[in-house]
Each structure stands twice: as C-alpha cells, then as structure tokens.
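Need tokens for this chain, all 117 residues.
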Amino acid sequence: MTANPPTPASPPPAPPASAEPPAAATASTRRRLDPLAPVAFVVAAGIGITALHHPRVGMWVAAGGLAGAALLRLVLRERDAGSLVVRIRRIDVVVLAGLAIALGVLATVTPFPSGSG
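Here are the structure tokens for all 117 residues:
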C-alpha cells in the first residue's frame, strides 16, 4: 500500500473585494504634505526673484519663508512637523528665526544699485 501525502490546510476565505477599509485605517494611512515643501518653495521663489534683478524683494521673500518655517516648527507637533524637525524644537525655532532675521537685516542694509530692488 502506498501512503497518500498529507494535504495542506486550506487558507481562510478572503474578504469580499467590495469591502471598504474602516474609516480610521483610511485616515491614518493618508499621506500629508511635508511642511518643508511649501517652505522650500517660498525660499526658492525668493532666490528666483533675487536672480531676476530684484535682490531686496527676493531676500525679503526668502526671509519670510524662513520665518514661516520657524512658525510652523513652533506650532506643529513633532510628528506633524516632518522634515522641519532636526533638533529639539527650541533650537530649530531659534536657528530658523535667526536666519530669517539675519536675511531681513541684510536685505535692509545692503546697498543695491539704484535700478534694482
């Protein structure tokens, strides 16, 4: 007599294809825009404006982007702040605000040719 090999257990039945995932699971897996993206866009716009022979305006736009980054880092929770989180909140805010102030001061005191800015 030959012995039949044991048959593997059948997998459990799959849920129907039309079943919707629970609302909580959908909300938690939704991707959010990283706060660094709009900040980088504003700073890049400031650099572009500066390159188009409007240095004072461009520097103020870039300084505004950095100030916005400092404000976002200050008010957002660590998990919501995304790529703006580098160190502890206090240091991140001080560095970003310091850069924004420094760039604003430079935009104000730098003498540009009379036809620009």
